[in-house]
Amino acid sequence: MAATDVDVFAPSTAPAAIVTGRRRRLRPQRAVLHAFLIATCLIWLAPLAWTVYTSLRPYQYTADHGYFSVGGHYGFDNFTAAWNQADLIKYYGNTLLVTVPSVLLTLMLASFVAFAVARFSWKFNIALLMVFTAGNLLPQQVIITPLYRLFLMIPLPTWMNATGTLYDSYWGIIAIHVAFQTGFCTFVLSNYMRTIPHELTEAALVDGASVWRQFWRIIMPLTRPALAALATLEFIFIYNDFFWAVVLMQSQDKRPITSALLSLQGIYFTNDNLIAAGALLAALPTLVVYFTLQRQFVRGLTLGATKG
Amino acid sequence: MPRSSSPSGSPAPSAVGMPLLSRRDMLKMVGVTAGAVTLPELLAACGSKKSGGGGTASKTVTIGSNASDAAPKAAYQQVFAKAKASTGLDLQVNTVDHNTFQQQINSYLQGTPQDVFFWFAGYRMQFFAAKGLATSISDVWDKIGSSYTPALKAASTGQDGKQYFVPFYYYPWAVFYRKSVFAKHGYQPAKTWDDYLALLKQQKKDGYVPLAMADDGGWPVQGTFDYLNMRINGYQFHVDLMAGKQAWTDPKVMDVFNHWAQILPYHDLQGGLARKWEEAAITLKNKKTAMFLLGSFVAQQFSGADLADLDFFAFPQINAQFAQDSVEAPIDGFMVSRKPKNLAGAKTLLEYMASPEAIATYLKSDPTNIAANTQADTSNYNALQKKSLELIGSAQHISQFMDRDSRPDFVSTVMIPSLQSFIKNPTPSATSSLLSSIEKQKQAIFVG
Amino acid sequence: MAMLEKAAPAGGTPTRRRGRSLRSLTRRDRLVLALMVGVPSALHLAFVWVPALGSIALSFSRWEGIGGFSSIQWIKTLNYKQIFTIYPPFWPAVRHNLEWMGFLFLATGVGLFLAVQLDKRLRGSRIYQSVIFMPVMLSFAIVGFIWHLVYSYDFGLINNLFHTHVDWLGDSRINLWSALVAASWRHVGYIMIIYLAGLKAVDASLREAAAIDGANEWQTFTRVVFPALKPINVVVLVITVIEALRAFDLVYVINKGTNGLELISALVVSNIVGEASRIGYGSALAVILLVVSLVFIIPYLVAYFRANFGARGAR
User: Fold this and answer.
1) Interface of C with A in 211-230 (CB under 8 A)
2) For A41-97, how does the pLDDT look when each residue is reduced to its tens digit (9 = 90+)?
3) Which residues of C touch A183 (CB under 8 A)?
4) Which domains does chain A have, with CATH numbers?
5) What's the pTM?
6) CB C121 within 8 A of CB C169
7) What is the span of the domain harbouring residue B202?
8) Does the model's ipTM exceed the 0.90 cut?
9) Among candidates B337, B336, B342, B330, which has minimal Cα distance to B403?
């Protein structure tokens, strides 16, 4: 049976007995609980709500009356200003250019390794998996210096990158994302693939299918849910990356949006209202993914965490 | 590039005329590049506008600029337009945000830098020249040397005796104030330390914050240290201290901090460590603070009547032996990278930039600096420029500012945090342990 | 990073068949497999492990990063000696990392608490979850921006709402805690979701049995549920520790990791990125970070793989 993933949003498995048996006494307790949770959620939303509120108001009004005021004009002017002045579309483009290839490559390479590790037994199977896993847990700062020097040394033809090296190039950023995230995805996918019944591939082998065919025709389609979940997760992770792009990408106008934010803030987002609008615009794609693909994202996080 | 910036990043001045920020921003404000490259590389056809793409080799000169703020950028555009016309060269300028440029100079110069790049004089230049990251231009100096004072030539010379740098402009650091405020209360510019202390006391009584304070980026307060050191211990001691040849545990250095502790209470300490100089300049403009020790680029925040009201006086004398013989005047200019694609063109460009016409064009759009070239036309100088010229001209020694006179790694990793901790805790005992910590770290860095 | 929680099967692992032996494959198949493994591994080793080893090597050197490898000077353990004795931000950074860890443990507790509450059959539980989990989607840079608007001295939410005049981000005595609140805003939701998944997988019969025995909520939790969560707890422990060691983005965005927000990771960057790099020194700091991280990662990995994989390969 394929690995079950737990749907965190499914109803609780807490036995109904506990609930029904004390239903009468529970009501005030439940009310308190709800009140507590609502209060918690309000506190949780407060920073974001404040950001949204600030972004909707013009600078002049808030400068005169303070930010904590009601009244004045409300509108999306800050958003259009932030968008146009900072030329955000360029940065979104950069982000896409880095994120999409990274996600695709990572999943592809990770499924290769996961397949080999999960479906076959050989000498360094486990050791390799451990290496991949540990590699993803390292703090990024541990490898940055030699990585930086390495990038400066690896030559790229100038048609690939103007500086002639891997440094300050999209290729370089994609490469490090892939190398770094492969560990995590390999681990998840190998766990997932391990649960696919061997009968399926045995049958194919008997029919003379090659390893590649097994991989492509049998295992991959079955891994699709895991891949979808991981794709969502990885998109968010790589979109949110800050460190690699800040250190390994020198040119401001090639940086993806998360790492470009800090610098954009200097000239274009010169007041808190614009900053709020800019931050929201930058966060927008992740929030959209969150609201539409929330289940996938959570599934990716908890995939295989529990086995039924 | 109107003022020195520390290696760890200093705020970009808001462009002239932009609505001002009265908020305090804790996040680093780093300006944006309006680089020549606007398309993601992979989509661009072969050859970006960066290093040396396009154009016939002998006619194109690429320039790496850090003049990212609006006023200097526009001013340079004028200059380069005229340079093109005069030299017949095709100039391709790539502008990078000011702070990022400094931060990445290391990898930039080792990678594929432009033929000519903007930089600063002083040890900061010598450091990179000694590492072989610049081409010597002594032959250019043979032609232009007569336009510069010996002090400027010395600041452009590397440790091997060859020149690597062509100065463009410089600007003094001084104590700025509003004439109307001084007139209103009968304040006089302070000539001696005692005058200064008395002035500060009086200003405080009259309800002002006597001295504005901004240390966002960690570099502005270095100006205070430099002046105190030069006034108390002399220029030579200061230079030696910056070069690691004197001990920070020397009682002379303690003397500097003791004097500083005397005036520290008169600063705008509340939030001062994180305040940007632009914001502090606003407090000067709004007459909330009475004085501000900063470079002349502070004038960028003033316009119209306010600008006419702005004046400065030289940092007061402390030790009669040294009087006011030194001035802190960072010099900005140009260098040639180590393997330029068009060396001859680069040199031709530098010869043009060393001409009176070039700097005159620049100063028309950005009059907060003064020309390094002694033959430049100074008749159009405004009052502040004339006074700056006088101040620098009358000085016997010119220093460059701590982060240009000393090793960049020493300044950014040791001095910036140390000066900040002094300001937070200026007691003598804390200071003396601070100084021995600085000395130990200095010895670790200035090795070999 | 998120992989850790996958490592904790709650409720035991069913045995699975051994993978196919390689011997029975054709040569071509073996080649394909070799490539499938080799290429990603090469990339991973080249960009992750070789640099890690490089950091270790460089930590014994003195180098400004200019000029080729020939300009490196080897100085043995001098960097480490200086870091431990004369580098002012080091011990504060260590302290801050520990404080970060401690605070995140508190946040983990809050996450667990919320997970337990939301695990009950509650109407609107889904909405509560979504709200609390949402900050996890945001990058730390955005979190930094949002909380800057909250903490700003002149215009922030807190100072205006409560009429206080506290310099939340600039005062080095409290800015670490301000940053930690922002980090926890994100951390709590993350932990909550992990525990929610774990709780849902806790065998319902265990809880029923406890209810029948008359245990109240607290007893059920402490005696039955929490022990059953042991694998998840291990994962959460490691996640919390690793998150504390990896913290960087938030403090960097606030003030580049200075003035009260020093962290070892930020110290590495401040020595390496910039005008004049102290490569050797920064590498030594990076190695310290590496060693501390490995102290947690390795035992965990060994335990996990041993538990799930037994002797090499067999499952």
Assistant:
1) 211-212
2) 999 999 999 999 888 888 877 777 777 777 777 888 888 888 888 788 899 999 999
3) 3, 44, 48
4) 17-77 (no CATH), 81-302 (1.10.3720.10)
5) 0.80
6) no
7) 173-328+401-445
8) no
9) B330
